Amino acid sequence: MDIERAVERIKATVGPNGWIADPDEQEPYLTEARRLYRGATRLVVRPASTAEVAAVVRICAEAVLPIVPQGGNTGLVGGGVPPEDGHNIVLALGRMNRIRAIDPVNFTMTVEAGCILAQLQQAASEVDRLFPLSLGAEGSCQIGGNLSTNAGGIAVLRYGNARELTLGLEVVLPDGQVWDALRGLRKDNTGYDLKQLFIGGEGTLGIITAATVKLFPKPCEVETALLGLARVEDVMELFARARAATADQLTAFELIPRAALDLALVHVPGTIDPLPARHPWYVLLELSSSQTESGIRGLLERLLETALDEELIANGVIAESGAQAKELWRIREAIVEAQNYSGSIKHDVSVPVSRVAEFIIRATAGVRQRLPAIRPMAFGHVGDGNIHFNLTQPERADTAAYLARWQEFNDIVHGVVRDLGGSISAEHGVGRMKCQEITHYKSPVEIELMRRVKCALDPANIMNPGKVVSPQEGSPDETGDGSRGWLD
């Protein structure tokens, strides 16, 4: 089919409100949060229903016209950005934003892909339930994108990644067929768990149009504390004790280095220095319970008393109000924002929980051996083994020259990750940024299996090409020059 004719058919399918051709109006769909990549497209398509998505995909399949699915476009690895050649359509799902059903008794909610994450949290709260997926972009990211990237966030420790929160999916396949598996079942042992192919698939195997997700009892009591530690080696011992001492009611466990807090105090107004004395490391932890008078405050106080007595922690503060808890969580947000004011080479990695401290020590030594004045900022959800190991440029360094060494420091950090049996992408995904990189850190068998799945489901390679995995070994990199940026 002629491409121009295909584009006209797509316009007719979605109607005048369902497409954008004006270059200025397309602009927000062509780049992403870190401004690492900027693509081009023939048409931004905004379907309003699963039937419209399926019809558009059928037209694209017939014309062999690539499709770039896009949610809230808050990703950090370029997964939703179109290629630079413009030979594609961007299929943005924001108009598909209905909550189809909430079943408080079954603890499930069925939602369309374009629903904003924060709105789903609110909808669950209104029926006295919790949808626990929570991340910095929750005010603008969409659940379809969260599932397509297997998003993590601050509550993974207690509730799991997006993968663990999903019971069923509705997916439009690369030939335009609709696979409807919106089941609210906790048990279904009837063969392959096909939904797992699409969760974390970043739109390369099909387009998630709706999902049935898990809900949980709504917390009635929440306790938050920020603790100062002298040694990073003590962090994971504290984590193990916190899990055991609180009957596994630990919801979040976040690591913050003093260097990152100092940066935030300089650059982010409203950041507080939470303890009287300075400490090399801090842990922000949260406990929650769905019971009133649960006793978690007492559990937390006893945990901290013991940790102080054994010199596992040096000091700490427990939030006395919701407002104070927000102040403590604001520190965690501010350390990310502060890194935007300097050149920063970023890594989103994971290792076994027991080896988090070893990773931080080894990776820090490795990068400092190469550049002594570099400023490592190791922070994040270490309770699930996820470390954001960001490397802030030396003071007064030339930013462009520093960022030109991105791959050099990637090799050092990712080498340590490989030695410890970890992953070079813990929660941000692969997208364009790591499509070639993962071939160096996954086994040839694993990469070949991924390619076989891609070729089996999308033989024409029209679904988000150039992302996650190349269809054939030695395929040229379709992602541009591989340039890096520095926004978190």
Notable features of this structure?
488 residues; 5-stranded antiparallel sheet
Q: CATH first level of the largest domain: which class?
A: Alpha Beta
Helix count equals 15
The number of E-state strands comes to: 19
Mean pLDDT: 94
**Unreliable sequence segments:** 475-488
- How many distinct folded domains? 3
- What fraction, in percent, of the residue positions are helical? 25-40%
User: Biggest sheet: strands, sense, closure?
Assistant: 5 strands, antiparallel
CATH topology of the largest domain: Uridine Diphospho-n-acetylenolpyruvylglucosamine Reductase, domain 3
Please give the radius of gyration in angstroms: 23 Å
Task: Based on Cα principal axes, name the global outline.
Answer: globular
Percent strand equals 15-25%
- Name the CATH architecture of the largest domain: 2-Layer Sandwich
| Protein structure class | alpha+beta
Main sheet: which strands, in order across? 5-6-10-8-9
Q: Ends: how far apart?
A: 41 Å
